[in-house]
Amino acid sequence: MHNERDNVPYAMNPSSGVPVYRQLMDAVRSDIASGRRPVGSILPSVRLVAKELEINPMTVSKAYSRLESEGLVERLPGRGMRVCARRTQAPISDRRKELEPFARQLVDHAYRLDLDASEIRRVLDPFLAELNHE
Amino acid sequence: MHNERDNVPYAMNPSSGVPVYRQLMDAVRSDIASGRRPVGSILPSVRLVAKELEINPMTVSKAYSRLESEGLVERLPGRGMRVCARRTQAPISDRRKELEPFARQLVDHAYRLDLDASEIRRVLDPFLAELNHE
DNA sequence: ATCACTGTCCTACTACGCTAATACACTTGA
DNA sequence: TCAAGTGTATTAGCGTAGTAGGACAGTGAT
């Protein structure tokens, strides 16, 4: 059922401390964002990915399921996971609220390190620049 | 040996998801930063705090030990934990490096929420303002 | 020396997250 | 209908973080 050309160019690092299923989520997210996996395409099956990466299909399934609850892909029973059209965004105020804990954490740690606002910006800016290039 | 006036006005929330020892660390850090526990003063003993908060002394000890490795307090064997004079800072470049993972995490989540650099700044700014007021 | 304090090492229990193995329901093509 | 392909519910094993209990060493006043 799967396309022979379906390659799975993901490379997981089991000893990085980052759970494998999260690494896989990031890889797939990146593929979708870049268009390598266009809207409507079917992700490689959990068993194929599992075989290539030498991990358990359930680990792949976990990644796929989480991406589904994020709204990036949808489950077609018996067929696979399909990349969704960009979901309707939550209101921007809600999304800002979701971001706040991470902003707070950043500032908390800066405070403990005795780094002021301008230092925070200095550390943050390269990442913001990277964000804009995408 | 301890002063009867040593009150332990901390209130832990065991079901908040935040480990008790971390809540206690934050409370003590706040006391030190505000001057309620001045440099040179001795923290209430682990057993006193444990009794007041109805937790195990080891949990308090864990909080104290971490604060010690942060350099906020020092251990006086047989006597207690004393609030330190502000420790010599690590080089600023090291401290910036320590902050980077949190900056990256913030930007990553913003990306997933489809929030751009200006939105990140908008969310972050109130926290930065708060930081400057202290 | 003794007593009443100090913090903590060591051990163990519990809860939770991550990964894996099996069995199942579903869909499609022959 | 049947075979081969989908994802996953369930269950289990493993490691780790958080918490707790008891024994221990250090300190200082008596």
Which assembly state applies to the chains in this document? Answer: homodimer
Count the beta strands of chain A: 2
Distance between the termini of chain A: 34 Å
Quick one: overall form of chain A? Answer: globular
- CATH class of the largest domain in chain A, anyone? Mainly Alpha
Helix content of chain A: 40-55%
CATH superfamily of the largest domain in chain A: Winged helix-like DNA-binding domain superfamily/Winged helix DNA-binding domain
Q: Provide the residue-averaged pLDDT of chain A.
A: 91
Biggest sheet features of chain A: 2 strands, antiparallel
Q: Largest inter-chain interface?
A: A-B, 37 and 37 residues
User: What is the CATH topology descriptor of the largest domain in chain A?
Assistant: Arc Repressor Mutant, subunit A
Order of helices and strands of chain A: HHHEEHH
Textual characterization of the structure:
The structure is a homodimer of 134-residue chains. Helix content of chain A is 54%, strand content 6%. The first copy, chain A, is mostly helical and 134 residues long. The first copy, chain A, folds into two domains: 20-83, Winged helix-like DNA-binding domain superfamily/Winged helix DNA-binding domain (Arc Repressor Mutant, subunit A, Orthogonal Bundle), CATH 1.10.10.10; 92-132, no CATH class. A two-stranded antiparallel sheet of chain A has the order 1-2. In chain A, a hairpin with a 3-residue loop joins strand 1 (73-76) and strand 2. Chain A binds chain B through residues 29, 70, 89, 92, 95-96, 98-100, 102-107, 109-117, 119-124, 127-132, 134, and chain B through 29, 70, 89, 92, 95-96, 98-100, 102-107, 109-117, 119-124, 127-132, 134. Chain A binds a DNA duplex (30 and 30 nucleotides) through helix 3.
